[in-house]
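From the pipeline queue, job 12 of 40. The input is one protein chain; the requested action is below.

Action: predict structure.
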Amino acid sequence: MASHFASTLDDRKQTGLMTDLEMPISRVLRGMEDVGAAVDMQRLSSMLKQFSADAEFAQNMAWKVAGNSVNLQSPKQLQQILFEHFGLKPTRRTKNGSYTTNAEALQAMYVKLDPEEPASQFLGALLKHRETNKLKQIVQSLIDAAHYDDRRIHTTFEQTIAATGRLSSADPNLQNIPNRNAAGREIRAAFIPGEEFEYLMSCDYSQVELRIMAHASHDKTLIEAFRSGVDFHKYVASLVYKIPVEQVSPDQRSHVKAMSYGLAYGLSTYGLAKQLSISPAEAEMLKNKYFDTFGNVHDYLESLVSKAKELGYTETMFGRRRYFPQLSSNNRASREAAERGALNAPIQGTAADIMKLAMLRVDLGLREAKVRSRVILQIHDELILEISHGEQEQVENIVRKAMENAVNLDVPLNVSTGVGVDWQLAAH
């Protein structure tokens, strides 16, 4: 099969990406799909009832404040309530000319209002309804997907959906389980070890995109930040603000952390300003301070865009290409979106390739050790394993060694691990 496609690939690097990475990982993924992940059906049912009740309560609150039973999922009815009934300042227009009522726009309106205002109370109830309704739908999808003969969810891992090369999953989509709020994390608690297994183990890469950026840019200052052994974001903040590490405030740390990840994800100055709730001028000033400190990072990111404009595509460390025809577009918005994508794709794509290489090494290590423990899920930068009795320490050593040595970078790859009787308790 590989030879059939070889003639259509550009060079040996491209061929190797398919034969040495994508084809072998497809076999590993097939095994994970067959095994599935055990879930606590009683816990899922209990969560479904709770989220349904919470969504209904929020809906009734919104109706009470609005004075009628508005359809909270109808953009047209929401526009009428928000901009006519409550007289709120309209948001930006959508392509069809109406005003957007997406979550980002509603949240922006909500934070500006007096909590005592009816409009604020309506928006608060509306946002709560959307959040709990989404959680309810996620839990329902898990219940629907669970095979009642084995109480395990057998998702489908997809290799060709995400443009960056990252794995995605479907039926159900396990990548969309929230991890930023307590209610979302509670869903993870429903994933448990199957019969004859003792624990779940979570293993994930720490700051992998930033480590790739440090390696690819050859920025000695950023490399040293990783090697310092000090809290990375605090150390970087001390360099950017030119103050001792112990004087770095929580806000300064969080701002620089957002800056670091924003660069790796192709975030615009305006996007950074919105994320940090600061002015675009302040965001631009922070960006300039960052680049003054890490000059090679600036040059590297600039080179990604210029090279992509020249070639028409970006390439990861392992040769994975992503094409950007919009880089030559006359439409400014399309062109700038493509430029942000060109910044992001090589870093995100390299992270995806490293995770796949790590999975191959983990699979080989577990098979050679002849252990019963096994990988059951891959979510973003995280692997979830089902741990058999008495194998915890041995398996942790195998996985850590495999992941940390998946590839040699100028900065060490760092892996965090945790163990628990469910996925949430295994978090670290």
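Job complete. The CA atoms of residues 76 and 96 lie 12 Å apart.
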